[in-house]
Amino acid sequence: MANPLRREVRQLYKNLLHLGREYPQGADYFRKRLNSAFMKNKDVTDPKEIRKLVDCGEAVIKELGTLYYLREYSAMKKRFYEEELSAMLNMGRPTD
Q1: What is the pLDDT of residue 78?
Q2: Residue 8: how many CA atoms within 13 Å on its side-chain side?
Q3: Quick one: how far is CA 79 from the chain centroid?
Q4: Which of 47, 46, 41, 54 is nearest to 10 (CA)?
Q5: In what residue span(s) does the Complex 1 LYR protein domain sit (predicted)?
Q6: Which of 6, 30, 76, 85 is a plausible cystine mate for 23, CB 3.0–4.6 Å?
């Protein structure tokens, strides 16, 4: 593997490993899957093929970012509507 590509692959692995800490099915599950995916492609030596795999990994990073954003958004939305519903239900009740 060429030196610049080697650095990119290592950085991609580190970035994915960092993002995997927040994975919904758990960090251990993500780490095992990540490791097996990288080991499956460890014998690839063609720079074009390596570049293609790195681009695919960067797409996975974007997908994970979107997944985490949607999870955060749905939690905020749920909290907001629960508070709003609670306020609406308590409007007609007298307070002591």
Answers
A1: 74
A2: 15
A3: 22
A4: 54
A5: 7-58
A6: 30
